[in-house]
Structure formats: C-alpha cells, structure tokens
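Q: Entry one of two.
A:
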Amino acid sequence: MTPRGKLPRTNGQSTLEYAVLIAVVAAAAIGMQIYVKRGLQGRLRQSADSIGEQYAPGRTISTFTTNVTANRTEAVEERGRAATTNIAETTTRTGSETVQESYKGAKLFHDGE
C-alpha cells in the first residue's frame, strides 16, 4: 500500500514501455525492408521494360546510315584583304536497331574456352 497523498513512482515503468514500443517499431521496419526493396526493384524493372528492348551484346543488330553535308568558307585576312566565312552543315541518320531473342548456333557468352 502507498501512504496517503503519495502516488507510486512510474518513471521506470513508462521508460520501459517506451523502450518496448521503439523495439517493436524497429523490428517492424526491419521486417518490412525486404518487401519495400522488392517493390522498388519491381518498379525499376517496369520502368526499364516500358522503354523498350535494351542493348544486349551479341544480340543487337544495328543498321544505320549517316549522311553529312558541309559547306565551308573560311575567313582569311592577308595583306589587307579579308574573306568571310559561311558554314552550313547538315547531318542525317536513318536506320533501325533490333534486339533478337537468340541466335541459332551462336554463343552469346564467353564460357572460358
């Protein structure tokens, strides 16, 4: 029994309750870590897949044609006479790139041979 007018000391009890509460929250955060990581990896994979086929060594075939047309006139000053410069350059690139599922009979990876 407690004496009249005095309340029991609960400092130790409340500190213990806070410690248990923090431990439970920390354990839940550690337990959820794997699921959060998997979710982020799934979103990253989904974003990469939405871009389209990615470059794959040995499985990517590219066919591009690049045409460059340049017209240049340089400025030269010699013995008091000056020439002006006009530069017009055009670059066009056409073609395609495809990633194949597999090559028949081709090795995709070097296996140490």
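Q: Entry two of two.
A:
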Amino acid sequence: MRPGEGVVIYGHLRPARIQVRPHFTPSEQRWRQRLDRQAAQQQARQARKATRAHERATRRAARQAERIRRHLPGWARARGEAGRDR
C-alpha cells in the first residue's frame, strides 16, 4: 500500500480500499486557497498581456503598411489598391 491509501474493515463485509485525503488546519487551508487564487490571477494577467501585445503588433503593422503606401508614387499606389481588391 502506498502513502495516502488505506483499507476499511467493517463487520462481515469485504475490506474496502480507500484514498485518504490530507487534513489541513484552517490557516493551511487559507494559505493554499491564497496560492490558488494568486495562480489564477497570474494566468489571467498573462492572458491579458498577450492579448494586448497582439493588438499592439496588429496596429503597428497596419500603421507601417499605411506609411509605406503613402510614400509610394501614384502609379504604384493604384497598382497596390488593385491588388487588394482581388
């Protein structure tokens, strides 16, 4: 038998294997809950940060493409816009 496992013997019934859960004091429970909450908050923060970074990169690429398009001669601009319609 491994740690955390046990056997219950009750009367004439067959022995039953059980998994034993650890017992935590209230202060330990609060500590564990706080760790879980902090981990969830950290994951949410990282997701928000990744989303913002992606949005910034998209806006930056659009601005850069617009700047390049603005500095092209007229014939090249028309050619580029015709390519966008396809």
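A: Comment on entry two: Helices lie at 26-70, 74-85. Strands lie at 5-8, 16-19.
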